[in-house]
Amino acid sequence: MALQTTNPTTTESWRKLQEHFEEIKNVHVKDFFKQDEGRAEKFTLKQGGYYYDYSKNRITDTTIELLLELANELGLSEAIEQYFEGAHINKTEDRAVLHTALRASEDAEVYVDGVNVVPEVYEVRGKIKEFSAKVIGGELKGYTGKAFTDVVNIGIGGSDLGPAMVVEALQYYKNQLNVHFVSNVDGDHVHETIAKLDPETTLFVIVSKTFTTQETISNATTIKNWFLKHGTQEDVAKHFVAVSTNLEQVDAFGIAPENVFPMWDWVGGRFSLWSAVGLSISLAVGYDNFDAMLEGAMEMDTHFETTPFEDNVPVILGLLTVWYNNFFGAESEAIIPYTQYLSRFSAYLQQGIMESNGKGVDRAGNPVDYQTGTIIWGEPGTNSQHAFFQLIHQGTKLIPTDFIGYITPLHGDTDHHNKLMANFFAQTEALLNGKTKEQVIAEFEAKGVAKETYEPLVNFKVFTGNRPTTTILGKKLSPKSLGNLIALYEHRIFIQGFVWNIFSYDQWGVELGKQLASGILGDINSEDISEHDNSTVNLLKIFKGVK
Ligand SMILES: O=P(O)(O)OC[C@H]1O[C@H](O)[C@H](O)[C@@H](O)[C@@H]1O
Q1: What is the SS3 assignment for 390-456?
Q2: Model confidence over 110-161: pLDDT tens digits?
Q3: Do the beta carbons of residue 70 and residue 319 sit within 8 Å?
Q4: Residue among 510, 515, 516 to mutate when testing ligand 1 (max atoms within 8 A of CB)
Q5: Which of 194, 229, 277, 464 has the fewest CB atoms within 10 Å, counting from its CB?
Q6: Model confidence, pTM
């Protein structure tokens, strides 16, 4: 069963949305608030310890009604069923998309091609649990009998970003193990990392779904060679484990079969941190915390699968992206967490969202004639306020922004936390209301500034406001609440790809560069340079020192 292939722009609800957009496109959200005292309450959803206030968006009741009408017209309910039931919605790779099965409850049944995969999932989870406990507890030892002090995750893309983001995010819950990440094929990355390590006390986790990724295999080989300068071939089994679907290649690399943590082709790389790809997470914070993160995700899954669309957080937020992307012409979205722990969150979501929905061919195989995936970016607040917020406040581009913050600070420093959160609230308020010419003049006059002095400055100090934000306010950053938040964004990806009539779960766009790189590596390593455009030939000559 494949997802339906309607061009969304040909639907009746899209036409109505277009008309509605023309009516409200110039209305200031300030005015919507004036007209409706209950607006904040009405446009706030509550789920899994989070409040989602989307009232500061450029929407009315009609906008939401029409967006939901669009979802219904396109058959979203059936699509969600297909997603959770393991239909091959990743059609170009003929695969199911079941990261949700990785966090399903033990008694759930999720069938992939007629086989219930939940028992296998729990078998691997059991293995992760046992292994993590032994490493953390010092029971498993290195080749000289010492307990492990360091763990290195060797992987790239989905085999790096998810675990790296979560290990950073859950730092507060960490144990004594130092966890490092090596991803880039840049030798300086791997050499800087190993320079700090003691081979006797370091565990290496090679993570690659395919086990053919050039970066990961190169880094793993370099590290193994470095290790073999200290330990023996036999010792490799004590220090290297692998996470992969490609058991043959793992074996060829010399990893002992008992050191392999399997994953499945129905888990996309960018959705894989819930699988054994998250082994480094479980090592860093312990299996119970890993499990709690999965539980948080499962709560979001249940919410998404069972909640009526008007109260369904991923549905509403996913459709808002469509609203801005396709009607307002917004090209990007910023994600700004007001917690330093989430400093890798937008980098992680860049892969999740842009690799999924950066597609220009529809599900029927034809080029689309409307906009699809948004550009995702962001850094933690308050740092970003002192860097790029100027453009969000006064630039010419519309940038819908998610503000993510928590009520309780983990270290209990309320002085800092109150300052942080004052900024969090102040920014969304400023982006909503802006500052009018009259307000600017009144401020000058209150300070006694002369008219001829302030007049030339007034326009520069005006803020139009009407810049949309969504506030995601959680109780506390914990493994569970983090799992919940990540799963929210995963489901938003599904909603958007579904509406845009594209395949969100393949990534053919990363192949061409890989192919060309392997040819160019041949050029670099040989005397001659094969055929390329002039610019590339010139650059290769400079690089090879023959020009
Ligand atoms: O886990 P691997 O097979 O090594 O893949 C690592 C990454 O590389 C690919 O190029 C894909 O674009 C990513 O989706 C994937 O996460």
Answers
A1: HHHHHCCCCCCEEEEEEEECCCCCHHHHHHHHHHHHHHHHHHHHCECHHHHHHHHHHCCCCHHHHHH
A2: 999 899 999 999 999 999 999 999 999 999 999 999 999 999 999 999 999 9
A3: yes
A4: 510
A5: 229
A6: 0.97
Catalytic residue among 386, 411, 447, 451: 386
Is the Cβ–Cβ distance between 283 and 179 less than 8 Å?
yes
Tell me the C-alpha distance between 179 and 195, whole Å.
Answer: 14
Three-state SS at 478: coil
CA of 471 to the centre of ligand 1 (A): 32
Residue 412 tokens, joined: 């209990």
User: Looking at the predicted complex, does its ipTM rise above 0.90?
Assistant: yes
Q: Report the residue among 210, 217, 250, 261 best suited for mutation to probe ligand 1: largest number of ligand atoms under 8 A from its CB.
A: 210
The closest residue, in CA terms, to atom 10 on ligand 1 is 510
What stretches of 247-397 adopt beta strand conformation (E)? 260-262, 332-337, 375-377
CA 6 to chain centre: 27
Amino acid at 61: D
Contact present, 53 and 473 (Cβ < 8 Å): yes
